[in-house]
Amino acid sequence: MFKKNFLAISLWILFGSLTGLIVSSFYGKTEIYIPFYHDISNVLERTSPSVVNIWTIKKWKGWQEQSNKFGYKKWRQVVKTGFFPNGSGVVIQENLIVTNFHVIRDAFNQNQELLIENHRGETEVAQILGFDLEADIAVLGVIKSLSLKPFKIRKNIDEIDVGESVIAIGNPQGLGQSFSKGIISAINRTFKDKKGNFIQTDASINPGNSGGALIDNRGRLLGMINFIESTSGGNQGLNFAIPVDTVIEVFNSITKE
Predict the structure, then answer these.
(1) Residue of 102, 216, 245, 253 marked catalytic
(2) Cα–Cα distance, 4 to 118 (Å, whole number)
(3) 31 falls within a domain
(4) E strands along 26-177, which residues?
(5) Per-residue model confidence as pLDDT tens digits over 88-146
(6) Burial category of 129 from C-beta neighbours within 10 Å (exposed 0-12, middle 13-18, buried 19 and up)
(7) Structure confidence at residue 71 (pLDDT)
(8) Ramachandran area for residue 192 (φ above 0: left; ψ -120 to 50: alpha; else beta)
């Protein structure tokens, strides 16, 4: 009798533990690897709501052909409005996004309106809450609530290894959210003209990826894509990201001011 009760209790404990593990994993509360949950297609689906496209609403004067009711045509100067891709952003907290300052520099200097687009194609206006020029990091706040999901942060960032698989998420060339896979090529890269150290990756990155996410194969944020080294202007496999601990440090300093 005792053995039967012990076995039943043990099975219930095991079942409860597994259920709790799976549920906590779906909410990003566990570091344990679960094969079906951490399949790459699953990872991409879960992280899509955590990366946004950033657009600038620009106005300019241009010529437009017009005609009156008598059919007489003439050219008249009018104010035109258009949307231009700037780059990408990473969701850190609800309706709070980090990106590179250089992504929104022109919008800041020219007082242009910024538009955030989520993975569903929904858009909302955002405002600049603050920035760190040296770190090339800016924080944006979405004015009205948008369907966004904060990233799970890689806690042991100091333990990342060269050769580790990574995925870059961003808006290259304004085409829309895209994914590219690669490895960590080097860590702690430094440059004379840039502050801090960088993660180097060969994951394909092009103009428009700036401000996007570099994640590990479990969907945890490793860093924010910052720049590429290229002689052609496109991807040549020399791509660099700001480590997530630096991103969070700057984010906290801006949002707590």
Answers:
(1) 102
(2) 54
(3) no
(4) 51-67, 73-93, 96-99, 113-117, 123-132, 137-142, 165-170
(5) 999 999 899 999 999 999 999 988 899 999 999 999 999 999 999 999 999 999 998 88
(6) middle
(7) 65
(8) alpha
Stated pTM of the model: 0.78
**Residue 150, CA atoms < 13 Å, CB-side half-sphere:** 11
Question: Which position has the token pair 């496109």?
Answer: 234
pLDDT of residue 29: 47
Nearest alpha-carbon partner for 52 in 148, 182, 195, 175: 148
In a domain, 106, yes or no: no
Residues 10/12/13/16 CA torsion (nearest 10 deg): 160
Exactly one of 136, 180, 185, 204 is catalytic; name it: 136
pLDDT at 150: 95
Quick check: is 102 catalytic? yes
Structural domain of 167: 157-245
User: What's the total number of domains in the chain?
Assistant: 1
Residues in the chain with pLDDT values less than 50: 26-29
* pLDDT given at position 28: 47
How far are the Cα atoms of 32, 66, 72, 73 from residue 69, in angstroms, in the given order? 71, 10, 7, 10
Cα–Cα distance measured from residue 64 to residue 80, given in angstroms and rounded to the nearest whole number:
9
Where residue 163 sits, what CATH number does that domain have?
Answer: 2.40.10.10
